[in-house]
Amino acid sequence: MNVPDRRGSLPLPTIRRYPAYLRLIKERMACGDDEISSAALAEALGIDPVLARKDIAMMGIPGRPRRGFPARELVAAITRALGWDNTTDAALVGCGSLGHALAGYRGFIEQHLSIVVAFDTNPELQGQSVHGVRVQTMSEIRRIVRRMRIKLGILTVPDSAAQECADELVAAGVEGIWNFSSVNLAVPPGVIVQNVDLAQSLAVLSHAIARR
Amino acid sequence: MNVPDRRGSLPLPTIRRYPAYLRLIKERMACGDDEISSAALAEALGIDPVLARKDIAMMGIPGRPRRGFPARELVAAITRALGWDNTTDAALVGCGSLGHALAGYRGFIEQHLSIVVAFDTNPELQGQSVHGVRVQTMSEIRRIVRRMRIKLGILTVPDSAAQECADELVAAGVEGIWNFSSVNLAVPPGVIVQNVDLAQSLAVLSHAIARR
Questions:
Q1: Where does A88-201 sit in CATH, by number?
Q2: Phi, psi at residue A88, to the nearest 5°?
């Protein structure tokens, strides 16, 4: 199968929509479909059909009029564009309630993310395993993450410890930090930070409901 | 304690920063501080001090030059602005891996969010309890959510079921939906949707790392 390599040139909004396309195409394949149209993807996700058509066109796979795109080729191309053709090893920093939940979240398997080591300050957790992942002391971040050549850190520590832990991850050579704290992390230009702040997101909702 | 009521007029970026301020102020109070400056908050969160000063000023609580704001009054005012002075009951729709994780996430206690009922299609889960929350069948959403007067729905179902479940929640009278699916939900104007798409967020990171 000749899969074009479009890893270098994708706009951010397109990348954000790819995981949803990928899931839907796989669902359709499981139902026996071997072709899928961008219009069907747009409808299922409630997005503009023009956007979906452009997103899919970027994969460079020829479609057939009134039929759609070959599902298998599309899955392979999107998977490759997302870097999900190889499993990404990740280090989880912070094994509190949220860290625990993420360590046990099976959705990451589909996205080829594998949490291979965890760190926590709690001495009771150290040496234990959380959902099959061994917990190490914080002081070992730099040594272990570097040795294991881990490129992705997942930060689920309290805000007060976030920058310090991010500094350790950066010193260990990670290229990306998935930041679940509320802190606006300072990192060198080569490191990508992606923020997910659940408290912030919930605040917007509950403020709006409280106003009623 | 005379706490101004500023629930009606807050800009969205300010609301998003409030949970982080709240946590930090409580941390300082636990260390014995009874006053806190907006500059200290800005520094701890890595944000512009001018922003923090404006955010705090919106609470309408007088501060003292070179000392700061009274911590207790600030906590009360922010808590009230966020609607966190009363516990918000929520319905969890979808008890897969992510739903399980959220049901067990203790961080919600701090935000006065209480998941009081859960729904799932899996007959094996029905009647069971997930982290102390009873799981009901999907067909009961409308009846139970309405009867319990729940105003917030947390949506953790597969994309293919998201719109349908959202419709049920809306019909049951919820005012806000916390949407963890990738679907762009269609809801009536009075209902607020707040999206958290973990796959989307991770896609941006892994695409960037894969390009290296």
A1: 3.40.50.720
A2: -95, 125
